Amino acid sequence: MYSRINSRPTIKTPDMSQPALNTTASFQALHAHYAAIKETSLRELFAASPSRFEQFSLKAAGLFLDYAKNNVTAETMGHLFALARERQLEPRRQAMFAGAKINTTENRAVLHTALRAPQQPALELDGQQVSADVHAVLERVQTFSAAVRSGTWLGYTGKPISDIVNIGIGGSDLGPKMVCQALRPYQRADLKLHFVSNVDGDDLDAVLQQVDPQTTLFVIASKTFTTAETMMNAHSARNWFLQNAAGAQESDLRKHFVAVSTNVEGVTAFGIDAANMFPFWDWVGGRYSVWSSIGLPVALAVGFEQFSEFLAGAHAMDRHFQDAPLEQNMPVILALLGVWYRNFFDYRSVSIAPYHQDLGNFPSYLQQLEMESNGKRVSLDGRTLEAESCPIIWGNVGTNGQHAYFQLLHQGTDITPVDFIATLHASHQLPGHQAALLANCFAQSEALMRGKHADEVQAEMQAKGMPADQVTALLPHRIFPGNRPSNTILMEALTPASLGALIALYEHKVFVQGVIWDVNSFDQWGVELGKVLASNILGELTAAPAPQGNAHDSSTSGLIAMARRALS
Ligand code: F6P
């Protein structure tokens, strides 16, 4: 249990059992409200209130959220805040920050917020001096990243490091890869970052073709240090080094391989010195780990000072989430809007549209964060959910998405709420581009909201002198129904601090939705079955002679037989 070192209050895990969501009073009130409001269009809502933008927007931790283009009124929001309160959001939030073991299926605390908190006031958890340990590891990250960046960390032939290859998957890849890309302008040209995650050898091979063993540093990143894909890539990288580093001995591996993990035995068994291991702790979930030493590639890429700014930006959002009343709380509002669409409008997916090229990996980062956290079908106490949980998260950078799948967003049969994310200032100096980018971003949300109705389309075609029969034929194709909701998140610029705040915003959104849906947002049992079956099938693909018997269905057996023939 956590305590403030001076006062040592004991924080108990709150009672985690909740009634089924659809049986709660506030959910039922929302249902009645939904029936009353569902026919009111966004156009009507804007026409009814000239101050809608001011009413439905807020600032926090350097971010601005415009949520005016959502199918909500003040009454809707009131019902949603009541739902959050009925689901015990405030004590749950307090419990997470305090270090209660809210990851009940793994009996773990959830303390990624401690990774970006100042050293004081200090946290203690089950006898662990959390703050002291976090800051001790940060100091090691600082020293090591400075040594590599300054060229004092040398490879086995005495040359400084030119290439860093992070080998990890899931949370041990997506976070640092996304952040390094987002902070591209803060990187140096003479230190290249590479990320290898896929067990498909093409991933590692493509990187190994580009790098020199004398000047390459491998970071083996795995919380468990047992993940099959990472272990295979790590062993192949080790073999490649020993085969290609002319004159290198096994003892030279220590200059070229470091590890980030919670598993010191696994790391040392692999052959990496514990002195070259950057630890973190079981209370950091993989998809919440970019703030820990899993962020080492970020510190290597942009320097420790910028990494500290990144942590500080997230901490500012933590403070906002923890302290702001629900009604003015950005992650809470974002989460409740998602619940509104998922559970009442039955919208099944959410599209993420960053209008910043350097946020290109943000949608796939959010896929893990949201879908691995809340893609659950049972409640915390194991009952089958009676209401829907996490939607599908997908997306790509604007403006590219506009010329690919935005057709469906505007005129498809499914309605998909969109999160537009943009910066007011660009990272580059090219004239004209930023205005064009922002114009597209704002135009898309306006088009989704307003649409273009039959009378408008007809008048437009008639004004162009189009013959009447052609107007009639084309009219249905050219109508945009509109009334399609979106959020717009704006930042001044993409900096380490604003990026930190943005990620923390979504982390807390996920937490709030997990509380409403009553799921454990911090375990991921759903990935286990495939891992076990893959390991069995791997044995069957390589075993000699071929295993007999009918262990599989005819489809899987047939595929295995084909692969055995190809691999033999
Ligand atoms: O299989 C899913 C998962 O456990 C993710 O939750 C995690 O981020 C990823 O694998 C990598 O795990 P590790 O860091 O232990 O290699």
What topology emerges from the helices and strands here?
Layout: E1 2-4, H1 25-37, H2 42-48, H3 52-55, E2 57-60, E3 63-66, H4 74-86, H5 89-98, E4 123-125, E5 128-129, H6 130-150, E6 163-167, H7 174-182, E7 192-196, H8 201-208, E8 216-221, H9 228-244, E9 257-261, H10 264-270, E10 277-279, H11 296-302, H12 304-323, H13 330-345, E11 349-355, H14 362-374, E12 392-395, H15 406-411, E13 418-423, H16 433-450, H17 454-463, H18 468-478, E14 486-491, H19 496-517, H20 528-542, H21 554-567
Parallel strand pairs: 6-7, 6-8, 8-9, 9-10, 11-12, 11-13, 13-14
Antiparallel strand pairs: 1-4, 2-3, 3-14, 4-5
Helix pairs in contact: 1-4, 4-13, 6-11, 7-11, 7-14, 11-12, 12-19, 13-19, 14-19, 17-18, 20-21
The structure holds 6-O-phosphono-beta-D-fructofuranose.
Beta-strand residue percentage: 5-15%
Strand order of the largest sheet: 2-3-14-13-11-12
CATH homologous group name of the largest domain: Glucose-6-phosphate isomerase like protein, domain 1
Overall radius of gyration? 26 Å
Shape: globular
Kindly give the count of domains.
Answer: 3
Low-confidence stretches: 1-11
Overall mean confidence score, pLDDT: 96
Kindly state the percentage of residues in helix.
40-55%
- What is the number of strand segments? 14
Number of helices: 21
Largest sheet: 6 strands, mixed
CATH architecture of the largest domain: 3-Layer(aba) Sandwich
State the CATH topology of the largest domain: Rossmann fold
Question: Could you state the oligomeric state of the chains shown?
Answer: single chain
**Molecules bound to protein:** 6-O-phosphono-beta-D-fructofuranose
Instruction: Output the structural class.
Output: alpha/beta
Distance N to C terminus: 55 Å
Name the CATH class of the largest domain: Alpha Beta
